[in-house]
Write a structure and sequence with these properties.
Helix content is about 30%, strand content about 25%. By secondary structure, the protein is an alpha+beta fold. It has two domains: about 90 residues, Phosphorylase Kinase, domain 1; about 160 residues, D-amino Acid Aminotransferase, Chain A, domain 1, CATH 3.30.470. Strands 8, 9, 12, 13, 14, 15 and 16 form a seven-stranded antiparallel sheet that branches. Strands 1-2-3-7-6 form a five-stranded antiparallel sheet. Strands 4-5 form a two-stranded antiparallel ribbon. Strand 2 and strand 3 form a beta hairpin. Helix 1 runs parallel beside helix 7 and helix 4 crosses helix 5. The longest helix has 23 residues. The mean pLDDT is about 95.
Length: about 300
């Protein structure tokens, strides 16, 4: 099942190319000192790949990431070399129909083993943690906050980067032990600066970015921004006009899919159940809407 008549790209196979490493959503081709990263139309939720794909989702994610990489390149170097298939080495440059719009040629960096999460609003696992402990990832928050409350200031709440299964929230001290003291400080600084920039840009277009996660890598001793950036897969996007503190928000991201899965009573362990067609269609519409809103 796919969310529209257009055929979804669930995986890629390029004849004459190295076998790709398949992530939850991306196929990554290792070219030695460079990578070609292809955003497929696979969908994951709660770190499990779903049996249904959303056609064109990979192109939407790529377009949004490229937009944000351009908006933040003065803050930190990123891994982009080119998103034009004609610049790709053979045999990839002979597969424009498959790869155009959903792939990028990137620098190859040593991935730092933490997910860099920043929260400006209280939602998701952060809201759950706050209700139970009054804190998020060891950061004590003021009393009396509600679901979707704006935090007094954005907080950096890293997690482990799990190859399989669920990522686990960690304290900043654990982040220092995992990534290194100097590196952890820089990761926090870069993550907060990028988020503040994105928050300001999105606000002008009527969008709240409640939270997001980023990934970084080391290249020749310097930290660079890698993977995707501020997409509906890695962020919570809310309508500023419809925002109401004290409840869950109408989202322009895959929260629609998460909510549907939870309503089905799924235990968040594989295999995931199939989703109703209407849920996939609504998710597709929201992905397209946030792309148009942010990049217009």
């Amino acid at each position: 099942m796919v969310a529209c008549a257009m055929k979804a790209v669930e995986k890629t196979e390029i004849e004459g190319a190295p076998k790709p490493r398949r992530g939850k959503v991306r196929d990554v081709y290792d070219l030695g000192d460079k990578l070609i990263i292809v955003a497929t139309d696979r969908v994951s939720a709660f770190d499990v790949i779903l049996p249904d794909a959303i056609a064109e989702k990979g192109k939407i994610l790529t377009a949004i990431s490229l937009f944000w990489f351009r908006q933040t390149e003065d803050i930190i170097e990123n891994h982009i070399i080119s998103a034009d298939v004609k610049d790709f080495p053979p045999p990839f440059n002979r597969h424009r129909e498959l790869l155009e719009g959903r792939s990028i040629l990137t620098k190859k960096a040593q991935v730092l083993p933490v997910e860099c999460i920043v929260r400006g609003y209280l939602s998701g696992s952060g809201w759950k943690s706050y209700r139970e402990t009054g804190s998020v990832c060891g950061i004590k928050l003021p009393e009396g906050l509600k679901e979707s409350s704006r935090l007094p200031e954005p907080i950096f709440t890293p997690s482990t980067k799990a190859a399989e299964g669920h990522d686990v929230n960690i304290s900043f001290e654990e982040c220092q032990r995992t990534a290194g003291t100097r590196e952890a400080g820089l990761l926090k600084d870069y993550t907060l600066k990028i988020y503040e920039r994105a928050l300001s840009i999105a606000a002008k277009k009527g969008i709240i970015i409640a939270d997001t996660k980023m990934e970084f890598g080391l290249m020749d001793g310097r930290i660079i921004l890698i993977d995707e950036l501020l997409t509906p897969d890695s962020s919570r996007f809310w309508s500023a006009q419809g925002y109401r503190e004290g409840a869950g928000q109408d989202s322009f991201d895959k929260q629609i899919i998460r909510d549907a899965l939870l309503a089905m009573g799924w235990d968040m362990l594989p295999p995931a159940p199939r989703l109703p067609e209407e849920v996939l269609l609504k998710a597709t519409e929201r992905y397209r809407e946030i792309l148009k809103t942010l990049t217009s």
